[in-house]
Specification:
Keywords: Chemotaxis, Hydrolase. It catalyses: [protein]-L-glutamate 5-O-methyl ester + H2O = L-glutamyl-[protein] + methanol + H(+). It comes from Hymenobacter sublimis. By secondary structure, this protein is of the alpha/beta class. The protein is built from ten helices and 15 strands. The strands form four sheets. A seven-stranded parallel beta sheet has the order 4-6-3-2-9-10-11, with helices on both faces. β2, α1 and β3 form a beta-alpha-beta unit. α4 packs parallel to α5. The longest helix is centred in the C-terminal third of the chain and has 36 residues. The radius of gyration is 25 Å and the shape is elongated.
Length: 344
């Protein structure tokens, strides 16, 4: 392991990431003239150590969990700790518990942005197998600062969603299967580094990076990044700003939560479905209460409860049909595992 060189490789992965990372680091020599920083989506309760232990068995790179304010070293791999963002600045790592981005902490987008601002054209961003959209905006940040964007060929990925999202969202330089990626990365870091021209780093990315380092921003700062829109942050309930820079449509609140448009759509869909399932539960409880009242009642009053009961059954059936059809469109089985069942 040697002192840090000018090249930086940043990797984002999620579902299927453990075997993918293992296969990739097997191809990288201990003498790699670059530092490698990895965001693997982990549960907040995990330690990250099992992944580090597994990676050490397959590579000569010095593998460790990232430590706040520790210096970067060439020939080393640093894994973002669970529930912490990993950022870089001045050849050092920053480990923070900032707001989630695209519902993730650590987030590849946060790492990629800080790397792009700090190292510009000498950054190589890599998105591997995973679900949803993390890393897509990050690769766009890297491209805007003159860096290189690499994705795992979606046909080669166990979970192709993240690579596919990146290919749709920005201009990718290389889309390669995993068994060829190590050689590609060695070729890229073997090229002469380029001087960082700070004037070429977009001001909006500098501002976003500085907000992430401080954990929280201000409304004045976010006003510089975009325009406030009539949408609320699904994480904190605050106002959202639509960002006006770069190729991608993005949103963020002043507390620091950030989303691509696709990520925001997914998050609001989840929140809506949770609300509707609560409503369905309450309707079921009302149906049960009306059933008991109708059975115990007499005459006109009992007939009125029966009418209310039939009405609530119709509402339950409609709501269940809506929820189950929505699950089918997203590729989920319905809660019965087979055919829909009407309320009777």
């Amino acid at each position: 392991m040697t002192s840090f060189s000018a090249h930086l490789i940043v990797i984002g992965t999620s579902a299927g990431g453990m075997p993918a990372l293992t296969q990739l680091v097997e191809q990288l020599p201990a003498t790699l003239p670059a530092a490698v920083l990895v965001v693997q989506h982990l549960s907040p309760e995990s330690s990250g150590e099992p992944l580090i232990t597994r990676l050490r068995r397959h590579t000569g790179l010095h593998c460790q969990l990232a430590v706040h304010n520790a210096p970067l070293q060439a020939g080393a791999l640093y894994l973002a700790p669970p529930d912490r963002h990993l950022l870089v600045k001045n050849d050092r790592m920053l480990v923070t518990k900032g707001p989630r981005e695209n519902n993730y902490r650590p987030a590849a987008d946060a790492l990629f942005r800080s790397a792009a601002v700090a190292y510009g054209p000498n950054v190589i961003g890599v998105v591997l197998t995973g679900m949803l959209h993390d890393g897509t905006a990050g690769l766009d940040f890297i491209k805007r600062c003159g860096g290189t964007a690499v994705v795992q060929d979606p046909n080669d990925a166990e979970f192709p969603s993240m690579p596919e999202s990146a290919l749709r969202g920005t201009d990718i330089d290389y889309a390669v299967p995993l068994h060829l990626m190590g050689r590609l990365l060695q070729e890229l870091v073997g090229m002469p580094s380029k001087p960082l021209n700070e004037a070429s780093v977009p001001d909006d990315l500098k501002l976003e990076a500085s907000i992430a380092e401080r954990v929280v921003g201000t409304t004045d700062e976010v006003n510089q990044l975009g325009r406030q829109v009539p949408l609320t942050c699904p994480e904190c309930g605050g106002a959202l700003w639509e960002l006006k820079h770069g190729k991608m449509l993005r949103y963020r609140c002043h507390t620091g939560h950030a989303f691509t448009a696709d990520g925001l759509l997914d998050k609001t869909q989840q929140a809506m479905e949770e609300t509707l399932w609560v409503a369905l539960r309450m309707m079921e409880e009302r149906k049960n209460l009306l059933t008991s009242m109708a059975v115990r009642g007499e005459g006109l009053w009992s007939v009125q409860q029966e009418e209310k009961l039939e009405e609530i059954k119709r509402h339950i059936n409609r709501l269940r049909e809506f929820l189950i059809n929505g699950q089918r469109q997203e590729g989920y089985p319905n809660e019965n595992g087979s055919e829909d069942q009407a309320i009777s």
